[in-house]
Structures are given as structure tokens and as C-alpha cells.
Amino acid sequence: MTKLMTSLLVLALSAVVSFANAGTHEDQIAARIAPVGSVCVEGTECAAAGKAAAVASGPRSGSDVYGTYCTACHGTGAMGAPKLGDAAVWKARLAKGFDKTLANAINGLNMMPPKGTCGDCSDDELSAAIKHMTK
């Protein structure tokens, strides 16, 4: 009789523990499969909130833009990108005129996508980054 009572008590406690953990496991599963982003349609409340968060505090310096967005390719010469401070290569690029070089940065050139990897850079910020790289 004691073995039966002990077995029933263990079984009951196991059921309680399993039930208590069920919510925790479901929460963990929900967190793992939750979407990583959302889509907002222009004109809706969520789209307006996203625009407010994306406003910059001011123009970024050429050094900041280079260090954040350009250094991966222009620091290593990846995919033929002219490297920071490589005067000979930059001289050949700038021979076509600074405006042409800036237009290439804005529109993309060869393997570089438009605006490099800085989709929210202004033309002035891209200009400052080019000036920083060509020093």
C-alpha cells in the first residue's frame, strides 16, 4: 500500500510540474518563432513611427560614414574597391571629375550597390566620405 501511495504521489507531482512548465515551454517556442520584423504601409500609424526613429541627429562626417559603411570594401580593396588613401587609384578615378565620382557612389558602380551600404546617407555625407578616402 505504501508503494502504491508513493507512486501515486510521484505521479501527481510529475503532472503538476509538467503542467507548470507547459506555459514556460510555449512561451519559449513562441519567442523562437516570432517574426524578426514587420511590414508597414505608408500612411499607417506604424510607418509614421518608423520614420521618426530613422531621423538622424545631424550630418555624419566623412570619417564616420567611411568607418561605418565603407571600410569593409574600401579598407581591404574587396571586389576591386579603391582603398583608403591609395592616391594613385583615387587620382585615376577623380580624373573624371569629383561630380562623376560622387555620381558613381550615389548610383553604384561595378560591384558597389547604390550608396554603397549606406542607404540613408545623404549626397553630402557620401561626398564627405569620398573626400575622406582620397586624402
Provide a descriptive summary of the structure in words:
- The chain is mainly α.
- The protein has a domain at 62-133: Cytochrome Bc1 Complex, Chain D, domain 2.
- It is built from six helices and no strands.
- Helix 3 packs across helix 6 and helix 5 (98-107) crosses helix 6 (123-133).
- The longest helix has 31 residues, at 2-32.
- The chain is elongated.
- 14% of the residues are buried.
Question: From the 3D coordinates, which CATH architecture of the domain at 62-133 would you assign?
Answer: Orthogonal Bundle
Number of strands: 0
Query: What series of H and E elements makes up the topology?
Result: HHHHHH
CATH H-tier superfamily of the domain at 62-133: Cytochrome c-like domain
Counting H and I runs of at least 4 residues, what is the number of helices?
Answer: 6
Structural class: mainly alpha
Distance between the termini: 90 Å
Shape annotation: elongated
User: What would the CATH topology of the domain at 62-133 be?
Assistant: Cytochrome Bc1 Complex, Chain D, domain 2
Helix content: 55-70%
Q: What is the rounded Rg?
A: 28 Å
What amount of the residues lies in strands?
under 5%
* Name of the top-level CATH class of the domain at 62-133: Mainly Alpha
Mean pLDDT: 83
How does the major sheet shape up?
none
**Regions with little confidence, pLDDT below 50 for 5+ residues:** none
Concise summary:
This protein has helices at residues 2-32, 45-54, 62-74, 87-94, 98-107, 123-133. By secondary structure, it is an all-alpha fold. The protein has a domain at 62-133: Cytochrome c-like domain (Cytochrome Bc1 Complex, Chain D, domain 2, Orthogonal Bundle).
